[in-house]
Amino acid sequence: MRGAAGALGLAAILAAPLAGQTSHLVIVAGLDGDAALGATMHTWAAAMVDAAVQRGVAAEDVVYLAPEPSRDPGRIDGESRKELVEAALRELAGRAAPDATVFIVLLGHGSHRGEESRFNLPGPDMSAADFAALLDGFPTQTVVFVNTTSASGGFLPVLSGANRVVVTATKSGNERNLTTFGGHFANALAGDGADVDKDGRVSVLEAFTYARTEVARSYERGNRLLTEHAMLDDDGDGTGSAEPGASAGDGGLARGVFLAGGVGAPVAAVPATDDPELRRLYNERTDLERRVALLRRQKDDLDSETYERRLEALLLELAMTNRSIREREGGDQ
Prior knowledge:
Elements: H1 2-14, E1 23-29, H2 35-54, E2 62-66, E3 78-79, H3 82-95, E4 101-107, E5 110-113, E6 116-119, E7 126-127, H4 128-135, E8 142-147, H5 156-159, E9 164-168, H6 181-190, H7 204-221, E10 231-233, E11 257-258, E12 262-263, H8 276-297, H9 304-329
Parallel strand pairs: 1-2, 1-4, 2-3, 4-8, 8-9
Antiparallel strand pairs: 5-6, 6-7, 9-10, 11-12
Helix pairs in contact: 1-9, 2-6, 6-7, 8-9
């Protein structure tokens, strides 16, 4: 009973069961300014689209809007005008499962005037407040909002909230130079160079850290002054961290969120079986393994007593499930 009680107590902390959890990706490329930059942004977007699909995100759960849909009709779903961006996000809010993970990535140019930050689009721009209203449509989902544009730092305090990871390429709206963060972030998601812990998947925290590091290196190689300072906020306090992790309040959620698989992606494939009860037990074991993996990623952000108590409860339930599997399979107890 102790194990079952512990598992129930963890439900609100570690989120709902992750079996069947889905991920959605929405990429919006804004005004490019010139053909060369437009081509570059499309390369970044295409890399993320392909990586998402290759890693298990359903094609219908990937939306890519750009100024010129004719550039790549096979990937681009429509024009990146304000009304179409709003329609896409509202449509997604209406069908996304309560435990889904929603990635929103902005590419292009941004601006900041007075107290307002904007994302530049063909036609009317979209403000941080515009996106905040749209994100209210995802009250239970995990939202990862990545604004890779210039002056994007102004979006962070406006969009910060519970169960959200907000990433910006700049630390404020006053960093207005063209940014390179988007390309490195796309490379992190599409490749394996950002997979620091070598678990075969890249978390949002790993992608952020990789991109921020590569941005600094590229400026150093060019002997240029660094004019973009990426920030990440995932604790809902409206203040981002340049180096999220154990020493900062941010990073706990981002280290357990993945483009494919959502929060705590699967750690092992479920064996095939024709036995419904055995299949249920296999899925239950996979779900518990996911929760253990996610909790271990949060270790540095929890006090030791809380961490050990939660881990013990999960491991006890996992042991009970494994015993039930052995009994069902007819193996040794």
